Amino acid sequence: xxxxxxFGSDNHSGVHADILNALRNVNEGYTIAYGLDDNxxxxxxxxxxxxxxxxEVFFVYNGTAxxxxxxxxxxxxxxxILCAESAHLTVHECCGPENFIGCKLVNIPTGDGKxxxxxxxxxxxxxxxQHMAQPHVISLTQATELGTVYRxxxxxxxxxxxxxxxxLLHMDGARLCNAAAFLKVDLNEICGKVGVDVLSFGGTKxxxxxxxxxxxxxxxxxxxxxxxxxxxxxxTSKMRYISAQFSAFLHDDLWLxxxxxxxxxAQLLAKELKRIPGLEITQKVEANMVYAxxxxxxxTALQKKYYFHRFNEQTCEVRLMCAFTTKKEDIFEFTRDLRxxx
Length: 342
Prior knowledge:
CATH class of the largest domain: Alpha Beta
Oligomer: single chain
Number of domains: 2
């Protein structure tokens, strides 16, 4: 029996049909490479319309590169980057920031994946002391790795604190679309308009095949990014294949429809789980993921049929992801099987 991988990650889903069509349509003839083609110019213009005409936008292959290279452009090796201890940046990027930037990551414990000024303030230490790493960037994840979502006012407070302390605010927006869909706001209302300086804007988890955008809200911060991207092996020659995806992704709010669906499926999954005695939902369900404590024997039995991650081995907390391709039937079958094992 094949294992259903649909609850493992939104990266496990396929590519939206509209994006596949865009790739087919751009796959004709010859065009100038390295982003000098008309497709790339159009896609970048569209992104500037969303995030502001004052921005500079660059395409890279993946989210890890978007985070690390975006941060490398605004930090030095003697700086520190403050992030939640659950952030992808520190947990799942294989010491990439330390390796490519040489900086220090400061991991801050949070209950729900969200940073606050009160949590950050004790870690802003040693400023001006030549013996200590210099706090320079606050990095937040929207939506967080725990599925929670920052409100605009929360981001603005973090930005104000960062800027008042001569720091910058970076946002890992791998699931920015899910956050915007949950809050029912435009994309820029939860990044550039509330003080974010550098954004990694992702599409891979929401219907694209590959490709992310690094957005600088102050052009001065992007001064050397072209060279950093090249050295970082992220300058794709056939950039039209990333650009075409972004154009389709942004056309007629495809990004929003996909994110709304995956969020709705997560809400349905949480609703069905709550109906089962003996289970506990551990985080607010605001994006497209559900965290729950499930008895160990049930996890073992379920994983023979379904692929999903144990988030915490000791507490039997699991992470269940939904994607733009998740079906109601998938959720009902999963919860029916869970009831049997309970």
